[in-house]
Amino acid sequence: MTSPRWMILVCFSLISVFGTGESLTIIVPEISNEQNSLPAIIAQMSRAIADLNASHKKLLVQQSRSGCNCNPSSLQACYSQRNLANRRLSSCNSQVRSLGAQRSSLLRQVSGLRSQYAAVVKQRDVLQGQLNVFVRYQNYGWKYYRGSFYYFSTSKANWQASRNYCTARGADLVVINDAFENNFTREVKRIAWIGLYRSGSNWRWVDGSYLSSRASYWAPKEPNNSGNREDRGEIWLYNNIENWNDAPWADANYWICEKKV
Questions:
Q1: Which residues 6+ apart lie within 8 Å of 135 measured at CB?
Q2: Separation between Cα atoms, residue 160 and residue 248, nearest integer Å
Q3: Lowest-pLDDT range, 51-65, 120-134, 172-186?
Q4: Lowest mean pLDDT among 104-108, 168-172, 246-250
Q5: 242: DSSP letter
Q6: How many beta carbons lie within 10 A of that of residue 168, not counting itself?
Q7: Burial readout 25-56 (b: 16 or more C-beta within 10 A, e: otherwise)
């Protein structure tokens, strides 16, 4: 940023020229590209405008106080002095308008940069949160697949205890949405609980959605609710695409948790 000393030189020039009748040229220094503090630039511009306004007022006062005799030569000198003062005032006004426009432009840039910064910070926080999830679940042996982490248990429990294990870790029993996920979950080659349960005459997933016939992979003749007590879904014939079975919730099975990210 150019030193404020240029403003002192401008004011000195105004005083000197007013007395000598010489022409006045005010050059506003350009802002260095090396300065990277927009607030500092705006403050400098504001001070420059304030100084020019002060010079403007002084010129008005001097113009109002200018007196002369009524003889022709004195009148001519008085008119010349008045015209010179008017030119100086016009120059000051132009400088004030120019600096005001620059300040407004810088303020808009500051506002835009603040908005960009806020957006970047928000995106950073989202990505950091996702990264933390990845690190945490990978460290505990969960497998990532198509936007979710999966945990394949190595012990057995009933359906509710299996679900409790998942929810205690910020997850739930797996919800199978399509053929890709169905194939992925049956690759473990184990009979395992999934997040499917009977609700009246319908089947629902643990996320609250109802089982769709288009994404249903029941084994042949299943579900059959044998003994009127089979109310939970499990992966059963895992070597087949259609592999689900309904089973009593109290049976001990392996289970699969899912954590969406």
A1: none
A2: 11
A3: 51-65
A4: 104-108
A5: S
A6: 9
A7: ebebeeeeeeeeeeeebbebbeebbebbeebb
Q: For residue 43, what are its two tokens? A: 């403050």
Listed in sequence order, the residues at least 6 apart from 116 whose beta carbon sits closer than 8 Å to its beta carbon are none
How do residues 139-170 score in pLDDT, each as one tens digit? Answer: 888 999 998 999 999 999 999 999 999 999 99
Terminal C-alpha separation, the chain: 48
CA 163 to the chain's CA centroid: 36
| Omega within 30 of 0 (cis) for the link into 223 | yes
Q: Which structure tokens are listed for 85?
A: 């003062």
Say whether 258 sits in a helix, a strand or coil. Answer: strand
- Give ∠ CA 229-230-235 in degrees, rounded to 5: 165
Query: Is the CB of residue 196 less than 8 Å from the CB of residue 205?
Result: yes
Q: At what angle do helices 5-20 and 72-139 cross, to 10 degrees?
A: 170
Predicted TM-score of the model (pTM): 0.55
DSSP string, 82-127: HHHHHHHHHHHHHHHHHHHHHHHHHHHHHHHHHHHHHHHHHHHHHH
Pairing of strands 254-260, 192-199: parallel
Separation CA 91–CA 99 (nearest Å) = 12
